[in-house]
Request: fold
Amino acid sequence: MSAVIENHHNEHDHHGPAKGLKRWFYTTNHKDIGTLYLWFSFAMFLIGGAMAMIIRAELFQPGMQIVEPEFYNQMITLHGLIMIFGGVMPAFVGLANWLVPMMIGAPDMALPRMNNLSFWILPFAFFVLLSSLFMEGGAPNFGWTFYAPLSTTYAPPSTTFFIFSVHIMGASSIMGSINVIVTIMNMRAPGMGLMKMPLFVWSWLITAYLLIAVMPVLAGAVTMMLMDIHFGTSFFNAAGGGDPVLFQHIFWFFGHPEVYIMILPAFGIVSHIIETFSRKQLFGYSSMVWAMLSIAILSFVVWAHHMFTVGMPLAAELFFMWSTMLIAVPTGVKVFNWIATMFKGSITFETPMLFACAFVVLFTLGGFSGLMLAITPADFQYHDTYFVVAHFHYVLVPGAIFSIMAAVYYWIPKWTGNMYDERLGRLHFWLSFIGVNVTFFPQHFIGLAGMPRRVPDYALQFADWNMVSTAGAFLFGFSQVFFLFIVVKTVMGGKQATDQVWEGARGLEWTVDSPAPYHTFSVPPKVS
Amino acid sequence: MTNVRNLICTFKTQFIVIAFALSSQLSAEWDALNMTKGATEISREVYDLHMLIFWICVAIGVLVFGVMFYSMYAYTKKKNPVAATFHESTKVEIAWTIIPFLILIAMAVPASKTLQTMYNDEAGDINIQVVGYQWKWQYRYLEDDVNFFANLTTDLDEIYNKVPKGENYLEEVDEMVVIPVGKKVRFLITANDVIHSWWVPAFAIKQDAIPGFINTAWTIVEEPGIYRGKCTELCGKNHGFMPIVVKAVEQNEYDSWIAEKQAAAIAMAELTEKDWTAEELVARGEALYTTNCVACHQVNGQGITGIFPALAGSEIVMNDKARNIEILMEGVQGAAMNSFSYLSEVEMASVITYTRQSWGNAQNGDGEIVAPKDIVEYKKNKI
Amino acid sequence: MGSKKKTILKLSGAVAAMYLFSFLLVPLYDVFCDITGLNGKVAQTTNAESSISIEGREIGLQFISHNNAGMPWTFKPSKEVSKIKTGTMYEATFYAKNTTNKMMVGRAVNSVAPTNAKDYIKKIECFCFAEGIELMPGEEVLLPIKMVVDNELPKNIKNIVLSYTIFDSNLENNIIMDHDSDHAGS
Reply:
């Protein structure tokens, strides 16, 4: 994804990038920083994925084979944290960096130096997090949701470093979102009203506001933890008058909007891709915008559906059940709009479109299991079982991650000037598609049959499907190494891409050269 | 001819038999893949709700994906070179906002009703306090003064694949929770250290066990049987190893079980008075060590470096009997070692003696045993 | 560029406000719990007179106790099960004894079952309202509870369970596993 630099097509170019490593450390160019974010998230995706392989390998058969329970708990914790904060979120920020300025006809992000800073503190945060693996007592072992008191009174000493690294990740996200909002609000090309913005820009605007609302709450939660651990306060400690359930409320007040932070940009991406490859204007643009806004607003009033079993009063359980079910309405509208866009289109199935179609189907499957989970009495049976694991992996892997892969295939010709190898792309898609379903579909069954999540070992009746799931996981895992190969191959060379790249592509980013020059839209374009 | 006909006939029956066997096996397999119908009225209601929502989702899925797959098939660039140009319709948007909303209401009504019934926790014929510990469950029968712990009994050799796994691998405990059928049994669920969650799928009960809180759940089990469940909230290292086993029995069987438990408590008190030899105590202590201590201090008494201290070669375990008792009785403040004062005098003495006699501790230290009387003495001095 | 600065300032303000809000959630949660009974705790009432009226029906009252994380005190209700009348004042005690040779501070946390009984229990006095119960080595004490169950208690509630869990409130003892402690063998 490195921007290949033959960039003197544009007369407004002031200067090209610096040479060597310095370019990457000091860069304030949105394309460079986008590239850094994307490579970083890919690295984290592979590290988090390696941890997933350890988890699945241990679960291949009943009995303890390759790791000890203590280490297994560290793996599930780090896998979750790394995939969420290191994989999915930075990938979306990377895409925002690359695309938002080009889509709105701006020369760069509004705050380029802060942009550099918000990226470069990220590797540091994850270095701290990963180094906890080598500390006495091991890495954090309380799950990515870090419920007190397991994460306070009963936590390993490395928890302090975990808190520190979450703070840095939060700061990075907050700076990133401020940058996105300021860019979108102030730097749109003349004539581009809010309701004319490309949907990816809209989705990121809403995401950035969500981030600004909830990342400080996460920071607050870990600060309180830190104070409980080191300064003798008792926010979550019953012995001092605190309340462990309060932690869960604060955490999920952050956590639920966080879930949508990881899916809204995907909605934007998929809308563009379906529109392009159906060669037909997106159906219901304004209802898409409204749907995203309502999802974002609803996300603040559904948090306790993660806590149906903590013993809330009936009224609270009913409220959170109903509000959660309500989210199905705007989500449904989005799915219907995508399908209506395809209906009577003139469709071709290049790799980005394959990923986008798989997104629509598999994300909707995840939505269905989400709806089932919203039904409180049934949730008592599903809660904290593999059914939940299957649910959120369906919305995150063939949801968020497929959308990121689709985006990479879709825009990489613009980034590098080279077409990727279509045959290899399709092969990667089919391997991933099969892998993801073989991994996660059986997890619905083992969850319903009664296997709890976050266990390193299980009873014999769950053995068959766990074996299948592990086989799928390794297929999926190795397919991503193949993805790395395809991306590197494309960066190195390939068929020269045209400026428009795709026949049906619309939007400002397709009007500039391929590869996109180092500086674009130094003079704002006119939008009619 | 008749032969042939017979042959066909046999084939036919065989085919039917095989098909029938297959389908019944399939449906049995299907049952193993789906949520349990369970053993109570509530659990069946929950199952029905689950299936209702499931089929509604399937119906919506067939419809929506049907249109999608049809579009993917019928409107390829080859078949439809020029795309239509429509891109908006307020009427359609309103329709597909309102229809899902109505479907959701149809789901919410029965769900809310079932939830209300589940919350009807006003009273129980039998009340059992359930306390989650790292990593076992304690049960106190509030009316009958019966109190015990349930520990996993699956052998470590099974877990580490040294011997074949038993039928109830990881789902077996040393003491089952016994309840009578046809009575309203109420569970008052809490925890001792971190948050656990008490789940028995057959009763559709899952409630978090939170230190300081009492969460309630109730059940009326219809059929005698053994129902197995698990802890479902990550509670540390051995979260996967603290199962729940409930045995539902007829009322008279329940009554005699209660009487038996009460008699056993009295017998235990008598054992305390007895003079014990080291061998007797070690024999008793080994099993107790396995259920209570192995998780941290390990089978070989070596602990885990940096987290759980070694008992083998420990100065206290070898030579400081008084401090040894004190640690077990009071726990170590600021460390993972909690008090085990809930063990009976006999159990406490046996497990301490076991550690003092094993791994060469007796040879390298003073070799003193701890008798139940020592524990009684310790408690007396405290009061 | 003026409007850009304005946006940045506004957004930074929003971040700071949300950070403060996360701390504000702590007292808000307590208020919310008082109103909804979310955490199943009974708050102190100063004015219980309205609930003391004509003697109502008889209900069962059961006290249960638990020592959290092996809290070494002896801590139990003086009387576990009793029958009480709604609408009348009821007094009970818990027995607590510090069995260690150090001064200790305990803190009791209360919880009620069934949850919907909570609104009808008026506690005038309870040791669970105290921030800490301080006991010298070997000291024993009877801890008082004074309460009224309102006559309005729903008819289907025939039995109330009041649970008290005693925690060691010396927070130093609750801080992350300390490996230098005088644990056996170290």
